[in-house]
Amino acid sequence: MHTGIDAPGTPLVEIMVTEELDARSEPRVRALLEDALTLHPEQLIVDLSDCPFIDATAIGMLLDIHRQVWTSGGRLTLRAPSPRVRRTLQIAHVNHVLRMVPEVDGQDMMTKTQ
Questions:
Q1: What's the count of helices (H) and strands (E) in the chain, helices before strands?
Q2: Which is more confidently placed, 107 or 15?
Q3: Which terminal CB of the chain, N or C, has fewer other CB atoms within 10 Å?
Q4: CB-side neighbour CA atoms (13 Å) of 5
Q5: What is the per-residue burial (b if ≥16 Cβ within 10 Å, else e) of 29-52?
Q6: Sign of CA dihedral 102, 98, 27, 55
Q7: Over residues 4-27, mean pLDDT
Q8: Is the pLDDT of residue 14 over 80?
Q9: What does the pLDDT look like over 54-71, one tens digit per residue?
Q10: Residue 105 pLDDT > 70
Q11: Is the pLDDT of residue 100 over 50?
Q12: C-alpha to C-alpha distance for 101 and 78, rounded to whole angstroms
């Protein structure tokens, strides 16, 4: 995703991850998320509903992106992580740092979680 646009205060940017988040995919996903950060989103949502696995490298990357979004006044949200991914985040003790929300059927997730 490269938009070439610098639009401060973009309300919402969503990115869907459809593969394993691991050391092999981390550079590509990080580049995508860093492109999204150039929009200065108020909400950066990473949809993990189709992500089957996450490793320590990817967790570190998500923590780094979280820090960058938080520093610029925004919020990172992980949407609908599978039970396996959610458990991995809990074992890594980052479930209290990284905000996770379930998938909301037929409703605007932003309205439901605010």
A1: 4, 4
A2: 15
A3: C
A4: 11
A5: bbeebeebbbbbbbbbbbbbeebe
A6: negative
A7: 84
A8: yes
A9: 999 999 999 999 999 999
A10: no
A11: yes
A12: 6
- Per 3-state DSSP, the chain is made up of helix, strand and coil in percentages (nearest 5) of 35, 20, 45
CA nearest to 1, candidates 37, 26, 25: 37
Contact between 79 and 113 (Cβ < 8 Å): no
Q: Tell me, what amino acid is at 96?
A: H
Tokens of 29: 């996903």
Say whether 67 sits in a helix, a strand or coil: helix
Q: How far is CA 114 from the centre of its chain?
A: 17
> Does an H or E element contain 44, and which?
strand 43-47
Kindly state the tokens that stand for 1.
């995703």
What are the backbone angles phi and psi of residue 99, rounded to the nearest 5°?
-75, 130
The DSSP call for residue 57 is H
**Which two three-digit tokens encode residue 58?**
């990817």
- Report the length, in residues, of the chain: 114
